[in-house]
């Protein structure tokens, strides 16, 4: 009998992505065992996030301030806008530290199956930003899935009158990959988009 | 740039068992997205556990009271004691709802490799309980690993003068298992311990 408080915590932890009841139980046990070094610091870190983190009203990023530190930075090139599906993708781009423009988080991609229509995504605010902020290049960094590609096509049609150049991330063989582990679609695409050396 | 508070939370979450930085990031994003339905309930459940959960002074279980609800229950047979490695194993036994005795959590198993000696485990308190509580049967429910078996042997030698009957969980083919997926050790053991029908 694990006690009501513990059972309740296990249920909440099991709702987190990629966790089930079994791993939730292990995590909760570990938390109780390491009260001072794990449980209390976790409560502290969670509370700080709950208290301080806001959604940026301009780009949709999560930060302690809104507009976020990227949107309000004078060091970022404001004519370059990278459109991503989710904040996770924004973080992934930032880890590369190569892109020096600003971002726009769509909040998803169009999907007939999941019933995601253009009005469910932050597309109107994207169109508005391009006009208002004088953006000259929009980089579509959407997933290389069917839904991601459909969304890219839709965005191209919506933005074609904006005057901004619309580009997308290159597709091909990922770094370090063995050819015989690649799917045929990727190989075909890489062959078709081959570059002169 | 994920913000200091978020980075800190990701680091703490990544320390939890079976999680790495990547899954921690996904979890933290999900928590921020579902502030009301996930983040705040999680903080609440964690705080309650941090506030209320104690280690039972008798058996080592975690509960809101010490002695725990099992140790202080009048409905459990107090002459029957099940020795487990960890609170996780106690919970596993309780999920079966078959065992109606009490428990003793060793806090680990003997291990030459990890440097776990008898004095690192709750063995003295076990010996004391058997005498004091008039226990007639000790069920050793330790893992079926080399270290677990060595610990069982050690406990048998320590408890042989206690007057209590010492038993251990049956070993063999687990329920629902296909024979050709079983390791040779288990098959050998199951064959040697075969039962007359």
What is the secondary structure topology, with strand pairs?
The structure is a homodimer of 197-residue chains.
Chain A: H1 4-14, H2 21-33, H3 35-52, E1 54-55, E2 62-63, E3 80-84, H4 87-96, E4 102-105, H5 124-132, E5 137-141, H6 146-159, E6 165-168, H7 184-192
Parallel strand pairs in A: 3-4, 3-5, 5-6
Antiparallel strand pairs in A: 1-2
Helix pairs in contact in A: 1-2
Structure, explained:
Two copies of one chain form a homodimer. Chain A has 197 residues and is of the alpha/beta class. Chain A folds into two domains: 4-51, Helicase, Ruva Protein, domain 3; 77-168, Dna Topoisomerase Vi A Subunit, Chain: A, domain 2. Chain A has helices at 4-14, 21-33, 35-52, 87-96, 124-132, 146-159, 184-192, and strands spanning 54-55, 62-63, 80-84, 102-105, 137-141, 165-168. A four-stranded parallel β-sheet of chain A has the order 4-3-5-6. The model of chain A has no long low-confidence stretch (mean pLDDT 92). Chains A and B meet through helix 1, helix 2, helix 3, strand 2 and helix 4 of A and helix 1, helix 2, helix 3, strand 2 and helix 4 of B.
